[in-house]
Amino acid sequence: QVQLVESGGELVQAGGSLRLSCAASGGTFGTYTMGWFRQAPGKEREFVGSISRSGLTIYYADSVKGRFAITRDNAKKTVLLHMNSLNPEDTAVYYCAARFGSPVDRADEYAYWGQGTQVTVFS
Asked: Is residue 84 within 8 Å of 113, Cβ to Cβ?
């Protein structure tokens, strides 16, 4: 069973950039598809993006496409979310998640979750 810990969330000005990190322990990291989700106050958890086990297949939500990028390093057991051109609508708690199988955008398809890291974008 894999354990996930996110880090890197902070307060950032609109237009800025941020990089979130998700560190995994336990399990075999390279066997998991990894996903990033976010949840703003009063809203449902929202898909951000997902990266396959090899890193060759990546999907993004339309709302972040062209601004966010996901990378992974299986040797270091980490997955990164690179966020650029941030705007206040990106304010949320960001979660990484893991699943077996292909990248998907449904949160209930992911079995393992981190505790989340807060990103706040101010204008």
From this structure: no
Query: Contact 123/12 with Cβ under 8 angstroms?
Result: no
Identify whether the C-beta of residue 18 lies closer than 8 Å to the C-beta of residue 86: yes
CA angle 105–15–60, rounded 5-degree value: 15
**Which of 115, 44, 117, 43 is closest to 83 using CA atoms?**
117
Find out whether 111 and 98 touch, Cβ atoms under 8 Å: yes
- High-pLDDT (> 70) share of the chain, %: 100
Task: Tell me the C-alpha distance between 22 and 49, whole Å.
Answer: 13
Two structure tokens written together for 111: 């079995």
Do residues 113 and 95 touch, judged by C-beta distance below 8 A? Answer: yes
What's the pLDDT score for residue 86? Answer: 98
CA distance to 26, 41, 120, per residue, from 59 (Å) = 25, 24, 23
What are 9-35's pLDDT values in tens digits? 999 999 999 999 999 999 899 999 999
